[in-house]
């Protein structure tokens, strides 16, 4: 009997040792792609002091998306003409819907498919009651030793100024791209992007298919991802879709002194609770797996054990990632109850109660999938599910991370910033790229600016700013990218 136990124990220990060897072997092979340090980052030698003044001036135009008829929209386009004369004398320009200019920089080789670089110059309004929280007037374009301050510096006038500064300098230096390069600057991105839609329709009518296009959608993230000390450039391949479902329950109403067992409000409340308790299925597959597989290679050895051995630890890893709203949003379609209605008086039963639930749709799901998920989850035929089909957007197609365009963007990031981690990612909000992408083989999303965790609240928030160093790096990125075309 003792010998049998010893053999069983020896066999168990052998299995454990074998498992440990497999885990260690997989982890040792699970490393990022080597990135050569080319020394000094690429420098276009643009006039950064002038670019800083140009961004400051751009901020002063009140191109607020809630007032698209404001004269500053047209004035901003005139400002671009005056500030970048070589761009406007070299490129053709037409202004499409919502004051959206489309520039064409004709290439020397017409056999090459064109590309598009995009940004937007409309901005969100200052939140009511927040004005006094700004360190500087939000539309003053204040410049200090480190930053340009003001609404739109990060989102997205900084990118517009960086692109045009790079193009102006390269034209002055005698550069002409081999392939035709288009530039489009949306005038209404923050309120739906009809301008970008018009550009895509324009290309489609002309029979022009872009090889690829680049818009905002992510940044170089510096210590934003927990547990990762090095900067990560997330070059996003897709963006989530969007649909808001309204749940409606009806009742006879009446006085609150004689309520039925289930009121309209109670029925809706139960449905909302079920949806929150039953998230849309998700996990590490498709683009989500591609993102975390690339990202996981840059963590410490101990953390890489889990990422490198997903065959064993996948349920644990998904559970860990799902515990944080930031990483959970990368795994699945998110469920966000945002609005509730009921009775207009506290002692009157609601004849109708409703809830609005906003879903940001993962590329693996469709709008129909989400409607069906809600129907099954609430399991209540007395609740009507409504939504406006014209406002529902599917997730955008997933672009290739092996295509030449992705490679050009990736190497240009490295040219401008030096060695850092690059990963293919997913934009969890909406950008104009979802429209431009309808005229392109591949649509990519990243702004070439480095941001920290503290910067996240500045987007659509208070004290928006862009560092002068970031502006310079962004100009160099676009210079390096255009040199490759």
Could you characterize the architecture of this molecule?
By secondary structure, the protein is α/β, with parallel strands linked by helices. The protein folds into two domains: about 50-220 and about 400-485, Aminopeptidase, CATH 3.40.630.10; about 240-390, Alpha-Beta Plaits, CATH 3.30.70. The chain is about 40% helix and about 20% strand. The protein has 15 helices and 18 strands. It has helices spanning about 1-30, 50-60, 70-85, 85-90, 155-170, 195-205, 265-275, 285-295, 300-310, 310-320, 325-330, 365-380, 405-415, 435, 470-485, and strands spanning about 90-95, 100-105, 115-120, 145-150, 180-185, 210-215, 220, 230-240, 240-250, 255, 335-340, 350, 350-360, 385, 420-425, 445, 450, 465. Strands 1-2-5-3-6-16 form a six-stranded mixed beta sheet. The mean pLDDT is about 95.
Beta-strand level of the residues, as a percent range? 15-25%
Overall pLDDT level: 94
What is the CATH top level name of the largest domain? Alpha Beta
Sheet with most strands: 6 strands, mixed
The span between the termini is: 76 Å
Q: How would you classify the helix and strand content by structural class?
A: alpha/beta
CATH architecture assignment name of the largest domain = 3-Layer(aba) Sandwich
Give the number of DSSP strands: 18
Q: Kindly report the name of the CATH homologous superfamily of the largest domain.
A: Zn peptidases
Q: Which residues sit in consecutive blocks of at least 5 with pLDDT less than 50? A: none
Indicate the CATH topology of the largest domain: Aminopeptidase
Count of helical stretches? 15
């Amino acid at each position: 009997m003792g010998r049998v136990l010893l053999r069983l124990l020896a066999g168990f220990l052998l299995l454990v040792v074998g498992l440990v060897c497999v885990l260690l072997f997989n982890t040792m092979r699970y490393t990022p792609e080597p990135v050569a340090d080319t020394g000094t980052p690429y420098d276009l030698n643009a006039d950064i002091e002038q670019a800083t003044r140009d961004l400051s001036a751009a901020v002063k135009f009140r191109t607020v998306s809630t007032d698209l008829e404001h004269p500053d929209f047209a004035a901003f386009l005139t400002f671009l003409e005056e500030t970048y004369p070589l761009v406007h004398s070299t490129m053709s320009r037409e202004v499409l819907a919502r004051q959206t200019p489309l520039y064409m920089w004709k290439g020397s080789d017409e056999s090459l498919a064109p590309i598009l670089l995009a940004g937007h110059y409309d901005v969100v309004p200052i939140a009511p009651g927040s004005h006094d929280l700004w360190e500087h007037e939000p539309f003053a374009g204040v410049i200090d030793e480190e930053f340009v301050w003001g609404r739109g510096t990060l989102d997205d006038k900084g990118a517009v100024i960086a692109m045009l500064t790079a193009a102006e300098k390269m034209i002055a230096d005698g550069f002409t791209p081999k392939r035709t390069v288009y530039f489009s600057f949306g005038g209404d991105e923050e309120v739906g992007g009809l301008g970008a839609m018009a550009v895509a329709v324009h290309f489609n009518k002309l029979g022009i298919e872009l090889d690829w296009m680049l818009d905002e959608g992510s940044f170089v993230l510096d210590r934003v991802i927990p547990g990762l000390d090095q900067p990560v450039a997330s070059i996003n391949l897709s963006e989530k879709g969007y649909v808001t479902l309204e749940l409606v329950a009806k009742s006879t109403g009446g006085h609150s002194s004689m309520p039925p067992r289930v009121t309209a409000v109670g029925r809706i409340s139960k449905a909302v609770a079920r949806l929150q308790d039953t998230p849309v299925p998700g996990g590490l597959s498709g683009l989500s797996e591609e993102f975390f597989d690339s990202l996981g290679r840059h963590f410490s050895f101990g953390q890489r054990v889990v990422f490198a051995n997903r065959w064993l630890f996948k349920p644990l890893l998904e559970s860990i990632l799902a515990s944080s709203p930031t990483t959970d949003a990368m795994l699945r379609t998110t469920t966000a109850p945002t609005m509730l209605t009921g009775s207009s008086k506290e002692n009157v039963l609601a004849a109708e109660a409703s809830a609005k639930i906003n879903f940001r749709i993962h590329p693996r799901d469709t709008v129909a999938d989400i409607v069906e998920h809600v129907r099954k989850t609430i399991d209540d035929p007395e609740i009507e599910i409504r939504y406006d089909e014209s406002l529902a957007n599917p997730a955008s197609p997933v672009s290739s991370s092996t295509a030449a365009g992705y490679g050009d963007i990736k190497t240009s990031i490295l040219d401008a910033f030096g060695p850092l981690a690059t990963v293919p990612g997913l934009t969890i909000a909406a950008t104009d790229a979802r429209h431009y992408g309808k005229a392109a083989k591949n649509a990519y999303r990243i702004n070439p600016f480095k941001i920290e965790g503290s910067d996240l609240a500045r987007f659509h928030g208070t004290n928006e700013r862009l560092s002068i160093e970031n502006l310079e790096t962004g100009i160099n990125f676009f210079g390096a990218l255009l040199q490759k075309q």
